Amino acid sequence: MMTNKEILKKQIIYRSMHRGTKEMDLLLGNFVKKYIDELNVAELKDLTKLLFIEDEVIYKWYFEKNSDKLIPKTKVTIMLKNFKL
Predict the structure, then answer these.
(1) Which range of residues forms the domain containing residue 46?
(2) Residue 2 banded pLDDT, cuts 50, 70, 90
(3) What is the rounded distance in angstroms from the CA atom of residue 59 to the CA atom of residue 23?
(4) Is 84 left (phi over 0), alpha (psi -120 to 50) or beta?
């Protein structure tokens, strides 16, 4: 039987790799693969919220270094901001 944490991780993995744009699939998919097992439940929930934000918003925030009110400042978003492909 899968725990809630394992189910959440599976949903995150799927959502991170099926974004609709190649850049976001690569960025978020690789970020999730690298860190998912290190995150606690609260951080996994923060990551889930991030994955519901539109690709375009995340793209501009990550690649063009725009600050965006839609992107919350959490441990997870700071980790992503510092993540290099």
Answers:
(1) 4-82
(2) confident
(3) 8
(4) beta
Written as six digits, the tokens of 59 are: 């793209």
- For the stretch 34-72, pLDDT in tens is 999 999 999 999 999 999 999 999 999 999 888 778 899
Residues 47, 76 contacting (CB under 8 angstroms): yes
For residue 32, give the CATH number of its domain: 1.10.150.250
Which burial class, exposed, middle or buried, applies to 4 when counting CB atoms under 10 A from its CB (0-12, 13-18, 19+)? exposed
- Rounded Cα distance, 45 and 2, in Å: 17
> What's the rounded Cα separation, in Å, for the pair 69 and 67?
7
Number of domains in the chain: 1
CA-CA distance, 21 to 36, in Å (whole number)? 21
Q: Which two tokens stand for residue 85?
A: 């492909």
Structure tokens at 64: 């063009």
